[in-house]
Amino acid sequence: MSCFSGSPIYRDGNQSDVGELVQMWISPDYRGSSVSSDLLDGLFEWASLNGFSRIKAEVQKDNSRAIHFYHRYGFVPSNEEAFHSDSSIMLTKHVEQGSTQQSTTAP
Fold it and tell me: What are the tens digits of pLDDT across the range 43-78?
């Protein structure tokens, strides 16, 4: 069940059905647990109920742990240019409409 009381993502100004996850930070005490995937499960559930078809996330190229997590969750590299194109990559994932989207990662 989603517990968001506002918009957890930004709508793309050029594509209203595309959301951007601007930043997600997990305390070191909880990294490697299910907290990250639980947060994204809730975000994707919220996105499916609010007209989003795709979520994108810009990730620093040197943040291999985050890139690995997003890939395991189902994000794929996008052909969209990242805002910080010299130091970041853009990843994207389709939002499944009308169903609760579960992570593909193990805790």
Answer: 999 899 888 999 999 999 999 999 999 999 999 999
- Taking Cα atoms as reference points, which of 38, 39, 4 lies closest to residue 23? 39
Six-digit token string for 70: 């997003």
- The helix (run of H) or strand (run of E) holding residue 92 is strand 88-94
Contact 45, 2 (CB under 8 A): yes
Joined tokens for residue 107: 């805790």
Q: Is the pLDDT of residue 105 over 90?
A: no
Q: Is the pLDDT of residue 3 over 50?
A: no
For 8, the token pair is: 């957890």
| Nearest Cα to Cα of residue 54 among 8, 3, 15, 102 | 15
* CB neighbourhood size of 20 (10 A): 17
Measured in degrees and rounded to the nearest 5, phi and psi for residue 42 equal -65, -40
> With contact defined as beta carbons under 8 Å apart, do 8 and 46 qualify?
yes
Whether residue 55 contacts residue 44, with contact meaning beta carbons closer than 8 Å, is answered with yes
